[in-house]
Design a protein that fits this description.
This protein has 8 helices and 14 strands. It is of the alpha+beta class and 314 residues long. The chain folds into 2 domains: 5-90, Arc Repressor Mutant, subunit A (Orthogonal Bundle); 105-313, Nucleoside Triphosphate Pyrophosphohydrolase (Alpha-Beta Complex), CATH 3.90.79. Helix 2 crosses helix 3.
């Protein structure tokens, strides 16, 4: 790594030097600002918008190196050093590399999903929402967890197992995030599917974490999603709470799946009208859903009830 300021050969060496002084993945704008404020580095800044130049150079290096880059992308325009990640020098929530978030789907950089055996335990004989008060996340430590190739056809899945997904919502005080109704929804009331107040993703091999007391940690994925959705470039504060499990085969879309349910509590409010690319999202109060409970999809109903219980308890 280029440590001496006078020995930089390329702009990437400068970016590496700046990131080596940070204890967390850093946004392109912060990297550019650090360089601008250092007289010995200032000449390495290029372009009318230096932060965009930094972002472009790092993104191209990561793409062209095909896994061999010294950098990794934690979230859009947020970068870190691989050697610091591998050495455990970043906090646990930064231990997962960036997975690009899209509406209701996720592009995974790995090929195995986590599954749990339904045999040998009476836990999964229960149906519905299993509250964390009686079924803590630490139960995963005592269950038979397997990794199965993600693209395995449904008919070829081993018998007696269920796939694990995580399901969560963003919450600020009495409000949660959901998708706005599209023009199609407006024109085809009752035909376009029920409303959802949550986001989801597969629990994968990439979520195995030595930092977590249960062996799996999805908080980094939730944190990365938040940075993508709210455009905060790593400066967002989130408190992730586990609410419980969902084990319900009544909806064929979620058949054979057990959901780990979380709520991501945001420290501040974000206005979606000011966030580029997030105009199909909106804040709604929990009270508004109480009048339209029947319109929620199954998992959202369980999540809504858990959030209401949290509100009553607090």
């Amino acid at each position: 790594m280029a440590e001496e300021r006078n020995n930089f050969q390329t702009a990437l060496d400068v970016f590496e030097y700046v990131l080596s002084k940070k204890n967390y993945p850093t946004s392109a704008s912060e990297i550019a600002e650090t360089i601008r404020n250092d007289p010995s580095l200032r000449d390495w800044l290029r372009g009318k918008t230096p932060s965009k130049t930094v972002q472009a150079r790092l993104s191209v290096d990561i793409l062209e190196a095909r896994g061999g880059s010294r950098f990794f992308r934690f979230a859009p325009a947020v970068y870190g050093l691989k050697h610091k990640l591998d050495a455990g020098e970043y906090p646990a929530r930064y231990s997962q590399k960036y997975l690009f978030w899209r509406r209701r789907r996720r592009e995974l950089s790995h090929s195995y999903t986590a599954c749990v055996s339904t045999g040998g335990t009476a836990l999964w004989t229960r149906r519905g929402f299993l509250s964390s008060e009686h079924f803590p996340l630490a139960l995963l430590r005592h269950l038979d967890i397997r990794l199965v190739e993600k693209n395995t056809p449904t008919n070829d899945w081993p018998q007696g197992i269920k796939r694990l997904r995580y399901y969560y919502c963003f919450r600020h005080r009495d409000q949660v995030v959901r998708y706005r109704r599209s023009e199609f929804d407006m024109r085809h009331e009752g035909r376009s599917g029920n409303r959802a107040i949550g986001f989801d993703g597969w629990v994968t091999e990439n979520h195995i974490s030595m930092f977590s007391r249960v062996g799996y940690d999805v908080s980094a994925s939730i944190f990365a999603d938040a940075n993508t959705i709210f455009g905060s470039e790593g400066n967002i504060e989130i408190d992730v709470d586990f609410l419980g499990f969902i084990n319900d085969d009544s909806d064929k879309r979620n058949r054979g799946i057990i959901a780990l349910v979380f709520v991501a509590n945001l420290s501040k409010y974000f206005d979606f009208d000011d966030i580029k690319g997030a105009r199909d999202l909106e804040w709604v109060t929990l009270h508004s859903h109480s009048n339209n409970y029947h319109s929620l999809e199954n998992w959202s109903k369980y999540l809504f009830m858990a959030l209401c219980q949290m509100k009553v308890s607090s």
